[in-house]
Amino acid sequence: MDSKSNSSSAAALTANRVREQLPDDWKILRDVHELLQKQNAFCVSPQQWGEQKIVEFVQPSELKQLINLKIEEKETHSLSEIEKLCQLVIRYSVKTSHGRFHNQLFGQLDPYGLAGAWITEALNTSSYTYEVAPVFSLIETEVISTVCRLAGYDEGVGDGIFSPGGSMSNMYGVVLARYKRAPEVKTSGMFGMRPLAIFTSEESHYSLKKAAHWLGFGADHCIAVRTNGRGQMELGDLESKIEEAKSRGWEPFFVNATAGTTVLGAFDDLDGLADLAARHGLWLHVDACLGGSALLATQHRSLLKGLARANSFAWNPHKTLGAPLQCSLFITRESDLLARCNSIEVNYLFQQDKFYDVSYDTGNKSVQCGRKIDAFKFWLMLKARGYSQYGHLVDHAINMARLLEQKLRARADRFRLVLDTHEYSNVCFWYIPKNMRGRQETAEWWTRLYTVAPKIKEQMAYSGTVMVGYTPLASRNLGNFFRMVFTCFPVLEANELDILLDEIEKLGEQ
Amino acid sequence: MDSKSNSSSAAALTANRVREQLPDDWKILRDVHELLQKQNAFCVSPQQWGEQKIVEFVQPSELKQLINLKIEEKETHSLSEIEKLCQLVIRYSVKTSHGRFHNQLFGQLDPYGLAGAWITEALNTSSYTYEVAPVFSLIETEVISTVCRLAGYDEGVGDGIFSPGGSMSNMYGVVLARYKRAPEVKTSGMFGMRPLAIFTSEESHYSLKKAAHWLGFGADHCIAVRTNGRGQMELGDLESKIEEAKSRGWEPFFVNATAGTTVLGAFDDLDGLADLAARHGLWLHVDACLGGSALLATQHRSLLKGLARANSFAWNPHKTLGAPLQCSLFITRESDLLARCNSIEVNYLFQQDKFYDVSYDTGNKSVQCGRKIDAFKFWLMLKARGYSQYGHLVDHAINMARLLEQKLRARADRFRLVLDTHEYSNVCFWYIPKNMRGRQETAEWWTRLYTVAPKIKEQMAYSGTVMVGYTPLASRNLGNFFRMVFTCFPVLEANELDILLDEIEKLGEQ
């Protein structure tokens, strides 16, 4: 027997064995929910928060000893061995659904969102054609038109797409704006053009700079605009930087507003920016990845006043609302531009001789080919709760942030707010350890204060009791402070805020 | 009571109600597996394939009547109503795990992959720092270094990242190559440079053209190279197009090879291309999104001969191997380039004053910020089966494709192959209806033949018995033919091929 038929029969033999074993292998899905429950991955009930750790933190080198990560050629594992491995993975992972995880811009999951995610993973299809995703194509369209309505567009106006995250959604904005300004870039590129300039505030998300790099503009042509005391882009500085760019021979074409900055949660003045953008002929994009959820709010919707006048915006329901990561929308008021900008003739996917209305094949609007069904989980959430419930939960999260500010002020000897008031559900503050209180606040005192948050963070990791992120803010020459961000889930009660502050005090004195 | 405190108390009221209802809401996760089973979403056992439809196809307008898609402000739904809605969604979705779904480049899921996907969705974290994804950070590193080893890199050489799909992975290749050639583009952009030119075969994936557009090169600077009879890029034509580009004043810098073209499954000559790329100083990227799975194969690994000499490649385990969508790897031989090219100073995420080794924070290599944990599902699959089992399954899938060719030849009066032999697991063929057999094959005859596949496809949709894709191939002036792609799952037996061909014949005569 030669080596080729040898390996050919080995393939057939293994294929048989795998085929016979498959019914058993599929049993793992039956057990996933139980595996997660056993390790308390969803630590949902407040009664559990005090008992269960958010994370059982171990250093990388130690973790490598605890879980056999090595992938081998021939080593196989039985269903029960794989389940044991999964238990270890869950055990040493961060429980982001624990009610005291406030470390990122996202928090606890909405169970309907997770159910939607599990179902789409199981149906494992792609958002490019009605043929392979009939229900999901209609659902994506429905969600997008609902969001266009919420944004204040007229009936039938607007278009959009789900993309794999806010950075990509912002890139869609830049690419569309460039295509609108100079459609020839699609074929000829940007060589030989005079530099196109992007404007965004110094406190905006880094994805704009990364987009400038990737899309060929260069980070130098992504110009940082100063912010005011509240973290909003200064329109005066924007205007003078536009003029400065023009005087260099650059062509201003795009301004990014931020609705909910990453650190302070500040909202730019969208109406003012819309006026300014109109005056200078710029595309106005709004990075509302964080703050877009205010669209649903009753009490705080005015934060987004002017949004309908922007040319496009990005919104991540996976942040405030508790949709599972990734759930990011790019929306534009320019109805046909997405398809015109991104489409290309693709015979094997977007045949025009199909037996159904091919306008339901939306894949050609995308820069991707295969694309996950991110719309369904969000749709299921909205169906379950109606958007008004989320609106009230967003309001509640912001109200809790205001309450936390009050409580921080009431502990003014121990805590210091970065801003007097924040606009959204972010609250930024320092903890002042006992031995630093009542001292003169010299430059040295502040330098020392900036080292406190990282030390408390370390204690947080080892105790697993609470997780709150920290960050410096270079644009204000500020060193490390805590940034606590409230989300729709967990739905916090007021007393939880005292528990949190008490815990930070406790860890701060260790 | 003024309107602000009115809506404030409405928020508190709703928050209370949602909080109280949450324990019930979380029950939906317990039921997801059962919901999927009830609707036979995983139609895994061959015994079911004849009885269960792959899709219950209805036209868009009708589907809108069958499922209430509308999102309302105040309408909420109970757990059991949501479960009924989910059942409808599952019912009218395509069962891509049905053993007779052969419509795309992906097929049935690997259950371990799906279990991994469910667990990462549940743990809902992001691949940027060790802090929020300790286990998953190590797992991504482990998978990447395993793939580097499989690609033939020396110990410690190579780097990579999971990206949201093959189009993005190919974009990583272009961006890295551009940065290597001209690091100043990161800051200054491409304005004023002489045009940089990309070369790729006329049968390569459209993502290269979309990348050329997005990244600012323009589609005109993405030059299509002719293919030979087997669908491979012609090195002679490449060389003359490089010279032609140079003579126009353009700067050739990037050649994309395809390992497994979308339609024919052709593999470019990587060794030949590596020689040519070296000669002309080009970055060689390999789009192995489809064919990368041959890395694991024993019998067919030589298809990728020369891969180790390429500067980078993309590989989607969500295609052949049955990992859930999205699971796409970008790998490069240039060890530190990803981080240097894409990094940016991001204080709130990538602090350097952390309490663990921050080299485990890999998010700065990415163009994204939040990034799904796509590594874990693939890792779990590899742990469960070892990579040699996948190797044999890949071999088996390719062997089945060869067997199908034989069977098509045995029915030569009714079927016609597009190529005599294909290299990978794709098989392309026409069905010749009874009333066209034995006739003179005039231009009209062929034109008529090209209308057959779309009609059979319509029958497939309504019968739900089998799904096989069809496509024309413009580069060869060929009209619609079927493209059947074998994947690791389902693990097919030989007799299944006759069942498939019989079914196409049956539908073809209706």
Automatic annotation (TrEMBL), chains A, B:
What are the recorded Gene Ontology BP terms?
Answer: carboxylic acid metabolic process
According to the UniProt record, list the residues that bear N6-(pyridoxal phosphate)lysine: K319
Q: Which domain of life is it from?
A: Eukaryota
- GO CC list: cytoplasm
Enumerate the cofactors the protein uses: pyridoxal 5'-phosphate
Q: Which UniProt keywords apply?
A: Decarboxylase, Lyase, Pyridoxal phosphate
Q: Which Pfam families match?
A: Pyridoxal_deC
UniProt key word Ribonucleoprotein: no
Cross-referenced InterPro entries: PyrdxlP-dep_de-COase, PyrdxlP-dep_Trfase, PyrdxlP-dep_Trfase_major
Molecular function GO terms recorded: carboxy-lyase activity; pyridoxal phosphate binding
The entry's family comment says: Belongs to the group II decarboxylase family.
What protein name applies here?
Cysteine sulfinic acid decarboxylase
Q: Tell me which species this is from.
A: Drosophila lebanonensis (Fruit fly)
**Which taxonomic lineage does the organism of this UniProt entry have?**
Eukaryota, Metazoa, Ecdysozoa, Arthropoda, Hexapoda
